[in-house]
Amino acid sequence: MSAYEAFQQLDLRVGRITEAEPHIGARKPAYRLRIDFGPLGVKASSAQLTDLYKPEDLIGRQVIAAVNLGSRSIAGFQSEVLVLGLPDEQGRVVLLASERDVPLGGRVY
């Protein structure tokens, strides 16, 4: 498989966070998110974003997530998608997002 074919296997989509609350049971501080992916529906994610973001700051934000990696149980919460981020100079997660609003469910390519 070529590198491009491997990239094509990963399904990265844009969604909008509709709910965010502390994930109390998680080992590392995290939020439980509900993300609307338009035609793909609303998916759940556990994301370690507590260093730079408050729950109220996340509501309404568009994010990029991998939607085809399968579900994972994190402290009793089914995380269905992996929200993508980048580390800043202190190692805190900065969300990966588009520069402007785009249609929900749009595929990254």
Structure description:
It is built from 2 helices and 9 strands, in the order αβββαββββββ. It is mainly β and 109 residues long. The chain has one domain: Beta Barrel (OB fold (Dihydrolipoamide Acetyltransferase, E2P)), CATH 2.40.50. The strands form 3 sheets. Strands 3-2-1-4-7 form a 5-stranded antiparallel beta sheet. A two-stranded antiparallel sheet has the order 5-6. A two-stranded antiparallel ribbon has the order 8-9. It is globular and about 40 Å long. 24% of the residues are buried.
Question: Which helices and strands occur, and which strands form pairs?
Answer:
Elements: H1 3-9, E1 12-22, E2 31-36, E3 42-47, H2 55-58, E4 62-66, E5 72-74, E6 77-79, E7 82-83, E8 85-87, E9 93-95
Antiparallel strand pairs: 1-2, 1-4, 2-3, 4-7, 5-6, 8-9
Structural class designation: mainly beta
What's the CATH H-level superfamily name?
Nucleic acid-binding proteins
Q: How many structural units, i.e. domains?
A: 1
Provide a count of the helices.
Answer: 2
Mean pLDDT, all residues: 95
What would you report as the Rg, rounded to the nearest angstrom? 14 Å
CATH first level: which class? Mainly Beta
